[in-house]
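quick one, 97 residues, struct below
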Amino acid sequence: MFKAQGSDETQRVRNPLCSFSRAIGAQRNMSYGKNINDPKHWRDRAAEMRALADTMKDADTIGIMNRLADDYDKLADRAAQRQAKANHHSLIHGRHS
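---
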């Protein structure tokens, strides 16, 4: 916090890295809606998490990140099942995606 020049009010200074993280998070969240049923999207997230885990030194952190990567793989499996089910439904009912 700092005191604004020429003012008696104390103002809070925003950390630019936090703002950047929020902006990136918002951008990614917008893309999840259209990617939720895309197995490749989730496999790519898993690969990113594993690559990031490889840069870590703390064993607990590495373990957590690898478990998160495994969870992304599970999301990819579920997305693939949803795609297969939708494709099967389309074939039976004569609709094409």
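The radius of gyration is 21 Å.
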